[in-house]
Amino acid sequence: MEMSQKIALSKCIRILKKNITNLGEVMDFLLQYGCLTWDERNRIGMEKSSDEQCQHLLDVMIRRGRKCYEYFLVALTSSGNNHIAEEIKNTYEKGAEEWKLKSMEENISEKNDTINDLISRVNKLEGQLLLKSEKVEEAHEERIKTLEDIKKLKEHTGQRDSDIRALITKNEELERIIQNLNAHIDYLKKEIQLKDYAMERMENDRRKTENEHTKAMQDLRGQQQETHGVCEELMERLTSQSKDIKALTKAFQNANNKGDNYKISAPKHHQLRRENTVGSCKKDPHYLNGRMSTYAVNTPSSKNRKII
User: Fold this and answer.
1) For the chain, which terminal residue's Cβ has fewer other Cβ atoms within 10 angstroms, N or C?
2) What angle do CA 82, 47, 22 make, to 5 degrees?
3) Helix axes 3-11, 66-78, angle to 10 degrees
4) Does the keyword Glycoprotein feature in the UniProt annotation (predicted)?
5) Which CATH superfamily groups domain 3-121?
6) How far is 185 from 178, CA to CA, in rounded Å?
7) Domain regions of the chain by residue span
8) Mean pLDDT, the chain cut into blocks of 10 residues (308 residues total)
9) Residues near 43 by beta carbon (within 8 Å), at least 6 away in sequence
10) Reported pTM
């Protein structure tokens, strides 16, 4: 709904409250054309007085569109409230003219404000143009200087081109060197991998040899223990035999000193061997009084004889 239509309804609210009739028919007409809903119709009907109902209806109509305003006027005329509809139309026309005048005045004031703003902006732009023109002159002078510098630089570009070419060749040589170094690095990496593999194999072999060495040492220790036991047995036997030999030598010496009738306290096999030797010595012509003579020792026959 337009502002002028809202103003017309608000100005005619007293006339509506005092002179409206058949308010139910008006609401039914508005309900028929979709300007009211059933809830709004029931709420308006629940108001106590007709003034409150009329106030509630106008509050709802003001929030509706332009077509609802026109349907409201038709509902008033169809329900016998022609004078109220004409009053609203007259106030709308008067208000519309006043609204147009006010809007025109507002538009004129707005246009004046915009013109003043444009004038101020134009003045600012003129000042900016002056500054920019000065900057353009400065830029033109700088451009001339830059052109002179460009000419000087062109003279030096020949030398720079030669330097650039030399740098390009050096760069290419460096790239080749880098490629060769990368290839050598790859070769060294492969060699390192092979060496690592060989080191792993050597480590595995070393572990195997250590295990074999430990096993061999264990076997040697077992053999040493066995040989040690055998040696101890042999030593015991040798000690026993040495004791027997000492006993025999003592007995033999005693027998030589005391004579043939001396009984030797020694083992039987040693006694038998001694008796045999003593008997043989008695039969020997070089044996005198149970002892060997010095002559018998030096004779050739005594060299081949063994005394036990």
Assistant:
1) C
2) 25
3) 30
4) no
5) Death Domain, Fas (1.10.533.10)
6) 10
7) 3-121, 267-308
8) 76 81 84 86 84 84 82 85 84 71 72 83 86 85 85 76 80 87 86 83 86 87 86 88 87 77 47 46 44 41 41
9) 56
10) 0.33
